[in-house]
Amino acid sequence: MIPNKTTRILIVDDEKMNLKVLTELLREDYTLVLAKNGEQALKFARQKPLPDLILLDVVMPEMGGHDVIRQLKEDPLTKEIPVIFVTALSSTGDEEQGLKLGAVDYITKPFSPPIVKMRIHNHIRFVHHHRLLDRLAYLDPLTEIANRRRFDQVLVKELSRAARNCTSLSVGMVDVDFFKQYNDQYGHAMGDRALYQIASSLKASLERPGDLVARYGGEEFALILPETDAPAAGRVAEKARRAVENEKIPHTISSVSSHITVSAGTATVRFTGRAGEQLRETRDGQTCEHTVESLMLQADQHLYKAKQNGRNQVWP
Ligand code: GH3
Ligand code: MG
Ligand code: MG
Ligand code: MG
Q1: Which of 111, 115, 171, 235 is most buried, judging by how many CB atoms fall within 10 Å of its CB?
Q2: For 16-40, what is each residue's pLDDT tens digit?
Q3: What domains are defined for the chain?
Q4: Rounded to the nearest whole angstrom, what is the distance from the C-alpha of residue 236 to the centroid of ligand 2?
Q5: Enzyme catalytic residues
Q6: Confidence at residue 70, expressed as pLDDT on a 0 to 100 scale
C-alpha cells in the first residue's frame, strides 16, 4: 500500500512535544487529527470521516488511554478502528494489559522513528486489506449494494435485537416486473445497467440509517426495516416502489407501464411483552415462533400477491 492523504490517523497525547514528534513523522503520508486529552479523542474518533487508525497515549490527566479504548470498543461506530498505544509505560504487564484491552500494537517511548513509521504503515496496509475483503464478502459487485450474505447476517442480528427490545421489525421483498422481457428486448448489458439504477434508487429512497437494501438474487431486492411496524413498512415499500417508477427507465413491452416498475411484499414481526420475554406475536395477533425463514417466506407470499394483483404495487 502506498500511504496517502485520504488515510486519517488520530493522534492522542497530552504532551505537545509528543504530538509534535509524531506529526513530523507522519504528516507527509497521512491526514492527521490531533487530540490533547481523552475527551477530545472520543469526540474526534466519532466524527466522520472516521479515523483509520488511532495512536493513543496511556497516561493522561482525567481520562487515561485505557478508559478511552474501553469506550471506543463499546461503541459500534468506533469499535473496529484499530488502536495503537504509544506510551512510556514499558513493563510487560502494561503491554499485556494494553493488548488485552483490544489494542493492535503497543509502542513504547522513547521509540525509533523509522521503525514506528514502518509499523504504522503496516497497520494501515492491513486496514485497507481488511476493507477490501469486507467489500468483496458483503457487496454485490453489479449493483454495489449489500449482497445476500450481508442481508442474512443483518437480519439475524436485527431479529434478535427486536426480540430483546420488544420492538417491531419489518422486511420487504422487491421484484422487478417483467424483467425477462426487458432483457429480451434491450439485451443483458442494458439489463445489468437497469439493475444498478434500480438498486441505487431503492437505496436512496430509504430514510433511516439502520435500514438496509440488499440484492437478494437476480432481479430481486430485499429490505430490512428495524423498529418499523406493518403500516410504516407499507409506506417505506411504497416509497421505494415509486422511486423506481420515477427513474423512468423505458420498458416499452411491459404491460404494466412504459417504464420499469417493481412489485413488493412486506412482512412484520412484532415482539410484545417486557423486554427479554419470549412472547412472539405477529401482526394478526397469532403467537408463533418467528424465524428468519418464516418472515422471508411471508414477505415472498405477499410479493406474489402484489404480482397477482397486477404488479407495480406493494402488498399488503
Ligand atoms: P415477473 O414480473 O413475474 O417478476 O417477471 P420477470 O420476467 O421479472 O420474472 P422472471 O423470474 O421470469 O425473470 C427474471 C429475469 O431477471 C430473468 C433473468 O434473465 C433476469 N436477471 C436475473 N439476474 C440478472 C442479472 O444479473 N442481469 C440481468 N441483465 N438480468 C438478470
Ligand atoms: Mg501522557
Ligand atoms: Mg424474480
Ligand atoms: Mg421479476
Answers
A1: 171
A2: 999 999 999 999 999 999 999 999 9
A3: 8-137 (3.40.50.2300), 148-315 (3.30.70.270)
A4: 50
A5: 219
A6: 97
